[in-house]
Design a protein that fits this description.
This protein is mainly alpha-helical and 448 residues long. The protein is 73% helix and 0% strand.
C-alpha cells in the first residue's frame, strides 16, 4: 500500500453540502449543454434517440455516483479521484489519474472560455475575430480572482451557481408555458435519414462522448473532501444531490428544446438554446440567453480553477509533483498550481472545441475506470477501512459502471481515430513524466 502522505498545508475545513452542489453545478452546467444538443441531434436526428443518449449518460453517472460517494467519504482528501487510484492501485495509477484529471479540467476551462469568446463576438461586434483573445483574458481574470484567496472563489461559486440554475429554470418554464409544441414525428426531422447497424452504434458512441463531457463534474465535491465539515455525511449527500439536480436540469432543457423546435432546426445548431429562446421571446431571445450564459459560464471557470489547484496541490504533497505547488499564499491559494493550470488552459484554447470535447471524454472515462477498480481493490485489501457510506448495490453497480467504462474506452480507440488516440498518447506520456517528477521530488527532499 502507498505510504500515507506527509503533513500538508493549511486547507480549512469550512465547506458544506451546498458548496459541494454549487461546485458541481457550476462546473458541469456550462459549455456542453449549450452546444452539444445540436451536435447530438446532427448525429441522431430522432427525438427518442436524442433523449435516449442523455438518459444513458444519466444512468452511467448514477451508477458511478454510489461508488465515488463511498471513496470520497472513506478517503476525505482534497484533489479528486487521484487520491482513490493512488491508495487503491498505487502511485503511478494515482499519478495517471491526477495527470489526466488536471489536463482535462484545464481543457474544460479552455472549452468554456472559447464559448464565452464566441458569444461575446455575437453580442458585441468589436470582439468579432478576437474570440480566442477574449478566452485568454477570461482565464487570466479568474487566475487573478483565485490569487486573492479561497473565500473569493467560494463566494463567487455559490452566487454564480444560483444565478445559473435560476436562469435555466426560467428558460424551461418559458418554453413549456409560452412556446408552441412541435410534434415528435419523423416529419420533424426534415427527412434526415437515420443510419442502421454498426454505423448507428458508432453514432451513438459519438453522441455519448458529448453527453459524458457535458455531464462530467457531478463529483465536484470530492475535490474539496478534506475541506468539508463532515465528509462522511456531506460528501455522499452532495454527490447524489448533484447528479439528480444536473440530470434533471439537462433532461428538462433538452425536452424544452424539443418542445419548441423541430429536429432539423436543432441538428448542427451550436446554440440550440438560443434558437428555442427566440421562439419564446422573439428576436430578443438569443441575445438575452447569450448574456445569461456568459455570466453562468464564468461559474464553470471559477470551479475548474479551484479543482485544478487542488489536484496539483495534493499530488505535490505526496511528492508526485513539484513540491513548490503545495505552497499556498495568505489567501489559501496554491500559487504555482494556479499559474501552471492557467498556462495549460491557454494552450488548450489554441485547439478546436470539438477536439477538446472528444479528448476530454476519453480522460474522464479513463479516470472513472481506475476509480471503480480502486473500490474493488480497497474492499478486498482494506476490509476494515472506516466507510461512513457504503455503495448501494455493490459489487453489481460498481461492476456495471466499470465494464461500461472499459467498453467505452475500447470503442473510442477503435471508432474515433482522430481524437481518442491523441488522448491515449497523452496518457502514455504520463509514464516518463511520472518517473521524472518522482526523481526531482526525491532530490528536492534530500537535505543539503
Amino acid at each position: 500500500m502507498a505510504s500515507e502522505p506527509p503533513s500538508r498545508g493549511r486547507l480549512l475545513q469550512v465547506l458544506g453540502v451546498w458548496f459541494g452542489i454549487a461546485a458541481a453545478i457550476g462546473n458541469t452546467i456550462a459549455a456542453g449543454i449549450v452546444r452539444t444538443p445540436g451536435d447530438i441531434a446532427k448525429l441522431l436526428p430522432n427525438p427518442w434517440l436524442f433523449l435516449g443518449v442523455w438518459i444513458l449518460g444519466g444512468m452511467y453517472a448514477l451508477l458511478g455516483a454510489s461508488s465515488l460517494a463511498e471513496l470520497g467519504a472513506a478517503i476525505p482528501r482534497s484533489g479528486g479521484q487521484y487520491n482513490f487510484a493512488r491508495r487503491g492501485i498505487g502511485e503511478y495509477a494515482g499519478f495517471l489519474v491526477g495527470w489526466s484529471d488536471w489536463l482535462s479540467t484545464c481543457g474544460t476551462n479552455a472549452a468554456v472560455a472559447i464559448v464565452i469568446g464566441e458569444y461575446s463576438s455575437v453580442l458585441l461586434p468589436f470582439f468579432a475575430g478576437r474570440e480566442k483573445t477574449v478566452a485568454v483574458c477570461v482565464l487570466l481574470f479568474f487566475a487573478l480572482l483565485q490569487w486573492r484567496g479561497v473565500k473569493w472563489g467560494s463566494g463567487a461559486q455559490l452566487l454564480t451557481a444560483a444565478l445559473k440554475t435560476g436562469a435555466f429554470v426560467i428558460l424551461v418554464a418559458a418554453c413549456f408555458i409560452l412556446g408552441s409544441r412541435v410534434p415528435l414525428s419523423p416529419a420533424s426531422s426534415a427527412d434526415i435519414a437515420l443510419p442502421h447497424g454498426f454505423l448507428l452504434i458508432n453514432l451513438v458512441l459519438l453522441g455519448m462522448q458529448s453527453v459524458i463531457y457535458t455531464i462530467d463534474g457531478w463529483d465536484g465535491v470530492i475535490y474539496f473532501s478534506e475541506e468539508v465539515k463532515n465528509p462522511g455525511r456531506d460528501v455522499p449527500r452532495a454527490i447524489f444531490a448533484s447528479v439528480i439536480s444536473i440530470m434533471g436540469i439537462y433532461l428538462l432543457l433538452n425536452a424544452a428544446v424539443l418542445y419548441v423546435l423541430p429536429m432539423n432546426e436543432i441538428a448542427g445548431n451550436i446554440f440550440a438554446l438560443g434558437a428555442a429562446a427566440n421562439k419564446v421571446f422573439g428576436r430578443f431571445g438569443d441575445p438575452i440567453i447569450r448574456t445569461i450564459m456568459i455570466v453562468s459560464l464564468l461559474s464553470c471557470i471559477n470551479a475548474c480553477q479551484m479543482f485544478c489547484t487542488r489536484i496539483l496541490y495534493s499530488m505535490s504533497c505526496d511528492r508526485l509533483f513539484f513540491h513548490q505547488a503545495a505552497k499556498v499564499n495568505k489567501g489559501g491559494t496554491p500559487v504555482l498550481a494556479l499559474v501552471l493550470s492557467t498556462t495549460v488552459g491557454i494552450i488548450f484554447i489554441l485547439g478546436t472545441f470539438e477536439r477538446v470535447i472528444a479528448m476530454l471524454s476519453f480522460f474522464f472515462v479513463a479516470n472513472y475506470t481506475l476509480s471503480y477498480a480502486s473500490l474493488f481493490i480497497l474492499r478486498k485489501r482494506e476490509p476494515d477501512m472506516p466507510r461512513p457510506y457504503r455503495a448501494w448495490g455493490y459489487p453489481w453497480t460498481t461492476g456495471v459502471a466499470l465494464i461500461a467504462s472499459a467498453i467505452f474506452l475500447v470503442a473510442s480507440l477503435v471508432e474515433d481515430r482522430n481524437n481518442a488516440p491523441i488522448a491515449f498518447a497523452i496518457l502514455l506520456v504520463s509514464y516518463p513524466v511520472f518517473w521524472l517528477l518522482k526523481f526531482v521530488a526525491r532530490r528536492a527532499s534530500i537535505p543539503a
